[in-house]
Amino acid sequence: MKFFVLFLLCFASNFAISDSLKIGENIAGEVIHKIDAEKITNDIYTPNAYHFIKKDQSTPTCSLVDRKNQSNLLEIMSPEEMEYPNCNKIWRPIITKIGSDYYATYRYDVEDPKKVFTSSYQLVKIAKDGFYKCKQNDSINELLQQKKTNTSAAIRDVIKIIGCTPLADDRSV
């Protein structure tokens, strides 16, 4: 029984280490939580979402990583030099379809130095070749923060009002 427990601990630690190595250019020191890519169609998947601590910091970061090309990384929220604000949690995406286009909206909680938590949102357009940050994400985030509930229908309405111009250059670090 002791051998089995030891084996299980070794296996679990190796799994955690291998997850750490899969984020971008090996920037994660410790993975806190991973949300696996979700299949939308046969060719379209959401990105993997990571909540982790960078090797050189002590507070968490949240990032999206393309499941096929892990060098395509979008930092949603990363602590500044003072370690605040930081990403306290990332949630499963809300998937929205408008016409033939798919979008994933990630809620993430930001912690400020006074331990105040604010919900923010990151919208990405998802396609066969990966995912793209929307140029209008700040405006979309502001509208979503004002809503009491954020469902796929509410997000669809916000996208229809503001739009989403994909920024291909803004998803890689």
Question: What would you say this structure looks like, in words?
Answer:
The chain has helices at residues 2-21, 137-146, 152-162; strands at residues 28-35, 48-54, 60-65, 73-77, 86-90, 94-98, 101-111, 117-127, 130-134, 166-167. With 173 residues, the chain is α+β, with helices and mostly antiparallel strands. The strands form two sheets. Strands 5, 6, 7, 8, 9 and 10 form a six-stranded antiparallel β-sheet that branches. The longest helix is centred in the N-terminal third of the chain and has 20 residues, at 2-21. 32% of the residues are buried. Helix content is 24%, strand content 38%. The chain is globular and about 40 Å long. It is built from three helices and ten strands, in the order αβββββββββααβ.
Give the SSE map.
Blueprint: H1 2-21, E1 28-35, E2 48-54, E3 60-65, E4 73-77, E5 86-90, E6 94-98, E7 101-111, E8 117-127, E9 130-134, H2 137-146, H3 152-162, E10 166-167
Antiparallel strand pairs: 1-2, 2-3, 3-4, 5-7, 6-7, 7-8, 8-9, 9-10
Helix pairs in contact: 2-3
